[in-house]
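Q: Could you fold this chain for me?
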Amino acid sequence: MKLTTMTQITLDGVMQGNGGVSDEDRRNGFERGGWARGAGDDETRTFITRTYQRAEAFLFGRRTYELFADSWGSTRAHPIGVALNEAPKYVASTTLTAPRWRDTTVLRGDLPAAIGELKAKPGGELQVHGSGILTRWLLENDLVDEMTLIVVPVVLGQGARLFPETGPDLALDLVESRVDTKGVMTQVYRPAGRPRYATA
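A: Sure. Below is the predicted structure, expressed as structure tokens.
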């Protein structure tokens, strides 16, 4: 399977608290949640829905898994809910002991090996949605095959960012890009090793 990620971010790179409710994620005093609600036009929403629908399986960090289980775990009236409920779900966690969402497997122990085994299976996409800590870890360990960023034209000035101030460097090849009628940018990248820097 191809491991893909999809992340909604602001222009200043914040991914925290993007959901439909303002108090979804208040960690570290964050007060500007719900910033992605209503963002994007019908074409962008269709793109997001179709992305979920083509998933062979989903991979989550613990926190995102619990948020998704609460909001989508019993939802079958929406195509995203159907996709999430019908596909296998994997959670990278050392603390989750009793997953309550059907068809969930907790990955413990040697995480790179476990994810490598999932990627080696035949099939379509192993998708990661949100899950910032996990996404950063996957990128650091060269496990991401394709990354989609949905950039909402807003600057928050606070909140957890997808890419920290310090961390590994990464070159990306742009494979798809578009801007919708509301100014939301969808950019699809493939990791391309390390950047090249100018020499003296």
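A (continued): Residues 65 and 197 are 38 Å apart (CA to CA).
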